[in-house]
Design goal:
GMP Synthetase, Chain A, domain 3, alpha+beta, two-stranded antiparallel sheet
Length: 133
């Protein structure tokens, strides 16, 4: 379960099991810019999933992947029109041949979050709870 509560101003505390994260918005939007904004967390979920997927895949297959770096850039200039663009760049470290590099590139697009973002219909139900006084 994930719980989110207001910490101060617009800063939100996000509890995910034993882990705590924070989210805020930029000063221009009225926040303090003290933590990633929700778009950053959304984008980071994709990058982290690709990194974990490739690391696990390489380990299971005995590929010589020694590490990897994932860089994401966002184009949200058309978000209000329903288009949200993410560019993901992978830097693979290790003695990989070109066939292995291409294999990992294909696998990266099969990570669960990539599939969720691109081929699932996400249904969200938002409800009010009674205020615990």
């Amino acid at each position: 379960m994930i719980s989110i509560s207001n910490e101060k101003g617009l800063l939100q505390r996000i509890n995910i099991g034993p882990h705590t994260l924070h989210s805020d918005v930029s000063v221009e939007l009225g926040g303090e810019g003290s933590a990633p904004d929700p778009h950053d967390l959304f984008d980071a979920a994709l990058g982290a999933c690709k990194a974990l997927t490739l690391a696990l895949y390489a380990k299971q297959r005995g590929l010589p992947l020694e590490g990897l770096d994932v860089t994401l850039s966002r184009d949200n200039s058309q978000e209000r029109q329903g288009v949200y663009g993410l560019t993901v760049e992978l830097t693979l470290h290790g003695a990989l041949d070109e066939a292995q590099r291409q294999q990992l590139l294909r696998v990266a697009d099969k990570c669960p979050i990539h599939k969720l973002m691109t081929s699932s219909e996400v249904q969200i139900s938002t409800q009010l709870r009674e205020n615990a006084s």
